[in-house]
C-alpha cells in the first residue's frame, strides 16, 4: 500500500470492472449507476435486466446488463468473463408475508437461503480466484440489513441468513486482506424501493411520523446506499475491511428510542 492516496477530483473507479447483482432496480441500480458514473465498467446481473440503467458515457464508465438468475446453481459465465475487481452481492429478499416460525416450511428456508446467502457464496467463490490471480486487489460488498443486527418477528430465517452474510463478510475479509481484497457489508433500512415501496405504503396521514421512525426521518433513497457503496468500492475506503456500514437514517444506532411529542425521548412509546 502506497503511503499516500491521491484524493484528486474526478472519477474514482477508472479502469475498474464491477459486477452488481440485482442491479436493474432499486438499491442495486443506484449502485450500478454510481460506480459507472465514477468510471467503472459495470455489468449488472438481473432476472429482469430491462431496468433503470441510464448512464452518461461522458463519465467514461460503462453500464450494461445481462439476464441472469443468481439463484441458479451455475454462475453465469459472462460474470466470470467480465473479470471484476468489484463485486456487489445485492440480491436479497424476505420473500413472503410475516408468519410465525412454526408455520415455515423447509422449502421456504431453502429459497430464503439461496436468495440471501447461497448465491453470495457461489458468486464470491467463482469470482474471488480471478481477483486474487490478477493481483489488482478488489472490493466485495454484501448487502445485508438492519435485521441482521436486530430482531424482525415473522422473518426469523431471513434475519438469520442476513446475519450469516454479515459474519461471512468478516471472516472472508480476514482471509483475503493480504491479497489487497477488501470485504464489507452495507446494512440498509427504510430505503424506498420496489421491495419496500415506502412512498406507496405509508399513508399520507402518517407522513409526519417519519421523525419518530428514524432520527433522520425518511424514507431513504437508493442513492443514499449507492454513495456508501461507491466509498467501499473505491480507494477512499482502502483501509476498511470486515465492516458493516448502516444506511438506515439511524434506526440501528437509536435502538428503539423515539422523540416524545411533548419533547424529550422515550424507549417506551405509548402508541407505537
Ligand atoms: N430497501 C430497503 O430498505 C432494504 C432494507 C434492508 C435490506 N435491503 C437489502 O438491500 C438489497 C436490495 O434491496 P432492494 O430494496 O433494492 O430490492 P428490490 O427487490 O427492490 O430490487 C432487487 C433487484 O434484484 C433483482 N433480482 C431479484 N431476484 C433476483 C435473482 N434471483 N437473480 C438476479 N436478480 C434478481 C430484481 O429484479 C431487482 O432488480 C437486498 O439484499 C435487500 O435485502 C433493502
TrEMBL record:
Q: Which InterPro entries match?
A: NAD(P)-bd_dom_sf, SDR_DHRS6-like, SDR_fam
Q: Which residues form the signal peptide?
A: none
State the superkingdom.
Bacteria
Keyword annotations from UniProtKB, A to Z? Oxidoreductase
The segments labelled Disordered in the record are 250-272
Pfam families for this protein = adh_short_C2
Task: Tell me its family.
Answer: Belongs to the short-chain dehydrogenases/reductases (SDR) family.
What protein is this chain from?
SDR family oxidoreductase
Organism whose genome encodes this protein? Rhodococcus oryzae
The lineage, from the top, is:
Bacteria, Bacillati, Actinomycetota, Actinomycetes, Mycobacteriales
Amino acid at each position: 500500500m502506497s503511503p499516500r492516496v491521491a484524493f484528486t477530483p474526478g472519477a474514482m473507479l477508472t479502469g475498474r470492472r464491477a459486477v452488481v447483482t440485482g442491479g436493474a432496480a432499486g438499491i442495486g441500480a443506484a449502485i450500478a449507476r454510481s460506480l459507472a458514473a465514477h468510471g467503472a465498467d459495470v455489468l449488472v446481473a438481473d432476472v429482469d435486466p430491462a431496468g433503470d440503467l441510464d448512464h452518461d458515457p461522458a463519465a467514461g464508465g460503462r453500464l450494461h446488463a445481462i439476464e441472469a438468475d443468481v439463484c441458479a446453481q451455475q454462475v453465469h459465465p459472462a460474470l466470470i468473463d467480465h473479470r471484476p475487481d468489484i463485486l456487489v452481492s445485492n440480491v436479497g429478499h424476505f420473500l413472503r408475508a410475516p408468519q410465525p416460525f412454526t408455520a415455515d416450511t423447509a422449502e421456504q428456508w431453502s429459497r430464503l437461503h439461496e436468495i440471501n446467502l447461497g448465491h453470495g457464496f457461489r458468486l464470491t467463490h467463482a469470482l474471488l480466484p480471478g481477483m486474487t490471480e490478477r493481483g489488482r486487489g478488489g472490493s466485495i460488498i454484501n448487502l445485508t440489513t438492519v435485521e441482521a443486527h436486530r430482531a424482525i418477528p415473522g422473518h426469523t430465517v431471513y434475519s438469520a441468513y442476513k446475519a450469516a452474510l454479515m459474519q461471512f463478510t468478516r471472516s472472508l475479509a480476514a482471509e483475503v486482506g493480504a491479497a489487497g481484497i477488501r470485504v464489507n457489508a452495507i446494512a440498509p433500512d427504510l430505503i424506498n424501493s420496489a421491495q419496500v415501496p415506502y412512498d406507496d405504503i405509508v399513508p399520507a396521514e402518517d407522513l409526519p411520523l417519519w421523525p419518530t421512525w428514524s432520527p433522520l426521518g425518511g424514507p431513504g433513497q437508493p442513492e443514499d446506499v449507492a454513495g456508501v457503496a461507491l466509498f467501499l468500492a473505491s480507494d477512499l475506503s482502502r483501509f476498511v475491511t470486515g465492516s458493516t456500514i448502516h444506511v438506515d437514517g439511524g434506526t440501528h444506532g437509536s435502538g428503539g428510542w423515539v422523540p416524545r411529542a411533548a419533547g424529550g425521548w422515550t424507549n417506551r412509546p405509548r402508541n407505537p
